[in-house]
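Support reply, case 0932

Customer input (verbatim):
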Amino acid sequence: MRALSTLPAGAGELFPWRSQQRRSSLRDEMGSRTALNDSRKRLAALSIAALGVVFGDIGTSPLYAVREAFGAHYGLALTQANVLGVLSLIFWSLVVVISLKYLTLVMRADNHGEGGIMALTALVMPGKLHRGHWRYFAVMLGLFGASLLYGDGMITPAISVLSAVEGLEVAAPRLGPFVVPVTVGILVALFLLQSRGTQRVGGLFGPVTLVWFLSIAALGLAQIVRNPHVLAALNPCQAARFFAANGGTGFWVLGSVFLVVTGGEALYADMGHFGPLPIRVTWFLIVLPALLANYFGQGALLLANPAAVTNPFYLMAPAWATYPLVALATAATIIASQAVISGSFSLTRQAMRLGFLPRMRVVQTSSHEIGQVYIPTINWILMFATVGLVLGFGSSSRLAAAYGVGVTTDMVFTTLLFAVVAWSLWKWPRWLVLLMSAGLLTADLAFWGATIVKIPEGGWFPLVVGAVMLLVMTTWYYGRTLLADALKKDAFPLTRFLRTLAASKKPPLRVPGTAVYLTRNPDVAPPALLANLSYNHALHEHVVIVSVATEEIPRVAGHLRGELRRLELGFTRVVLHYGFMEHPDVPVELYAMEELELDPETTYFVLGREVVLPEGRLGLPRWREQLFAIMQRNALPATAFFELPPERTFEVGHLVRL
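Our regenerated output:
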């Protein structure tokens, strides 16, 4: 049987078919191995990158979660039964909420690969919204959930960096007065650096976060080895006994236990950057074991030394390691804050593209990653709010009261929207959807009920932020919808305009060059074109009517971007399709279309700018009409939003009475 592998030279000529078959088999095997190796390397690279972007928020929760669960405000005795009960709640919260809900179920609901509550909302929003329809209520839930994420984007940097810097008090109590100023300085520097983007430092995020998880795992394991009895908390009966023994107090402690799962929405929102597989692999192989080791290590320390409850995370470390640990924790919290801030930028861009926010200046900070953007307006709002939170609350313990209400509400909405998608889009059996929703909502509503009591202590803040953002989003959406309806009443169909132009006994003068008119509706003559013709009695030799359509998918393939149709009299109609995650660059797309043969030196861009005069016709309260008019006036001009060259662009004003 070994003769085939030891044939002498030239023997292959006697069996040419066998030699060719062997060579082909070897090539296929080598190709498969190469592809497998490349796939593994790519998976490893994506998994390390996901550590820094996806798990920064949930990875810094050990800094304060256990400490808050045994805070003086609950009056929970530091007995062995209570420590094991809290650890059991932490373990099963991570398993049920993160492992089961988000990684197993919710991440199935992707909008062409993109995740997040805004992408989930787009799945249940088929076009125009109508009040009273069940989809309207589902979309309102999604919008309010997205609005709450802005509050999260303000609170997370504040509580994360503040809790890390508070380690200075553990190392040297005399440094306590410097905690808040140092925190404010770090946060201001972080926001000032946002305009540079994360492309240059993004490669460091993953390795630094990996060191963080390995370090907190080592700290926890050292304590577990000294007191392995703490592993009894893996038994869910410990959680049941905890509730039975502590009654209402045990339920309210869930408000602090919830802090261990606050990064769940980030897992879902960042799915589009890495895909579900790297996130799942990283969670089960690195993040979950490291978090559990650290939480159980803190529990073991508290069993041995109840006085360590003041700051169990830092007191796990030997004295010589406190300063290095503070530095590492600060780096980890900065990374976590960066991820949340970047998520706020991405959320804003999605809302703009879906028509829920006015146009703002968007800066693409990476030439390779489309998700890396910077929005100055949002950046400064977040900076002032975050610094204000640090100065107003003064410590991470006080700030923890404001943290959780918005996130728990968001998680409830995510479960409800996921159920809507599973039932209406995937056609899952109703009994299965109801059973799944009941199970997930049991955990979500328990956390929500435990955190809702924090509203007077600061939990009102994310709710107020969410309510304001929801008001802004809905006002802009309905205002733009009603504005479009008003413009449609005065619209001149394009086909009729061309027939009138062809039948005119005194046709307008045609001047050399190309005029590109941007309009919302490609089937009507742009108001700017009609105004130009009325004032100047002339048209360019070539006229291109361009409409930009935002699809309810994250991205549109390049070959599907442009839709061109030749019309008569030198007119051409073009529709450019973009996904809600993309930033439109109209000139680049038009110049790339060979059929148009545009010359940048002889091409001019003309667009209309509506000036809204509210007169009580919108059907909204007068103050909301005024709010819409203010947003309309202050929205980024289409010239900048669509990247039109200012020196070759003309705007024609159009008064609209609403």
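We compared this against your earlier run and they match. Two observations from our side: Residues 490-657 form one domain. DSSP finds 26 helices and eight strands in the chain. Please reopen the case if you see a mismatch on your end.
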